[in-house]
Design a protein that fits this description.
The protein has 10 helices and 12 strands. By secondary structure, the chain is α+β, with helices and mostly antiparallel strands. It has one domain: (Glycosyl)asparaginase (Glutamine Phosphoribosylpyrophosphate, subunit 1, domain 1, 4-Layer Sandwich), CATH 3.60.20. Helix 3 packs antiparallel against helix 4 and helix 4 runs antiparallel to helix 5. The chain is globular.
């Protein structure tokens, strides 16, 4: 009897060892680990009439250099185990600090010759979010949006109140002159000249092309958390305290771990009316569409039906990336779940 029990124990031990040494079992464990640590990041810096024939080689290089710096900086945070929120904020700050894009330092001018900045950020685990609108002295609006999310009970703050909060939480404030760039002032004067010459309303169809450069980022970290953020100076020659979609959660920015993260760029009024960022997530959740399918449906069908143009960047819970736009170009860069870097400015047919 004792011998039988002894041999039974030995047999069970050998089976357990063999199972542990089973190559397929080890492969399964490795696959589970890889899936758990999938990471990806994608950025945009505006969509619109972006034509290769209108951009010199030197300017193209300048754009791509900043885009690469931004996306690589965010990806490095993810590789080192950092959060998607940290990656999104870092990537967008780099774009905000560049005069090339319509956010932060490169923000466009209002009709009154001022710079009014908007931003938002959202994380997909708890769906917490923060946003700011119409700030004029905050160096990095995306950082203020995150502070609103993490250091207040609110989701959105605007204008002087948001700036007071920024000062209270110790963020970097600058003189409004910091945001002045000659190229943006020339764009304002062109827009005002058009208005004066044509005596048209604020929504001159040509004026909408002065909105290029809104920036955004979406990231997926090793813990499976998605974050998205967007920052902008709005529309050139805007009046009356106009605010677009960038600081509106669900319109310009949205994140949900179970579906995707989205950052949008384009003619903001239509993105607000279509709740574009959330609509893509909702179509994935309720209709079972993939990120690419949902984005194509919204950007190529639903948005144009309203008369809107622009694009989105997105990442789903599996690390798949989508960059979809219905304009001639969109500044964009990504590092996908295989670690492959991509930097593009134009549509595929250019």
């Amino acid at each position: 009897m004792k011998k039988n029990i002894f041999f039974l124990c030995i047999s069970l031990l050998l089976c357990a060892c063999n199972k542990g040494n089973n190559p397929s079992n080890s492969a399964d464990q490795v696959q589970i680990q890889i899936e758990k640590e999938t990471l990806a990041i994608v950025i945009h810096a505006g969509a619109g009439t972006i034509l290769k024939e209108n951009i010199s080689d030197s300017m193209e290089l300048a754009y791509k250099t900043v885009l690469e710096k931004s996306v690589r900086s965010g990806y490095e945070i993810l590789e080192n185990g950092g959060t998607s929120l940290d990656a999104v904020e870092t990537s967008i700050r780099i774009l905000e600090d560049s005069p090339l894009f319509n956010a932060g330092k490169g923000a466009v001018f209002t009709n009154a010759g001022t710079n009014e900045l908007d931003a938002s950020i959202m994380e997909g685990k708890t769906k917490n979010a923060g946003a700011v609108a119409g700030v004029t002295t905050v160096k990095n609006p995306i950082t203020l949006a995150r502070a609103v999310m993490e250091q207040s009970e609110h989701v959105m703050m605007a204008r002087k109140g948001a700036e007071t909060f920024a000062k209270e939480v110790g963020l970097t404030l600058v003189d409004p002159e910091y945001f002045y760039t000659e190229s943006r002032m020339k764009a304002l004067k062109r827009a005002q000249h058009r208005d004066s010459a044509s005596k048209t309303s604020y929504y001159d169809p040509f004026a909408k092309d002065e909105k290029f450069g809104t920036v955004g980022c979406v990231a997926l970290d090793k813990s499976g958390n998605i974050a998205a953020g967007t920052s902008t100076g709005g529309m050139t020659n805007k009046r009356w305290g106009r605010i677009g979609d960038s600081p509106i959660i669900g319109a310009g920015t949205y994140a949900n771990n179970s579906t995707c993260g989205i950052s949008a760029t384009g003619w903001g009024e239509f993105f607000i009316r279509g709740v574009i960022a959330y609509d893509i997530s909702a179509m994935m959740e309720y209709a079972g569409l993939s990120l690419q399918e949902a984005a194509n449906k919204v950007i190529h069908e639903k948005l144009p039906e309203m008369g809107g143009d622009g694009g989105i960047i997105g990442i789903d819970q599996k690390g798949n990336i989508a960059t979809v736009f219905n304009t001639s170009g969109m500044f964009r860069a990504s590092i996908d779940k295989t670690g492959t870097l991509s930097i593009e400015l134009y549509s595929e047919d250019q």
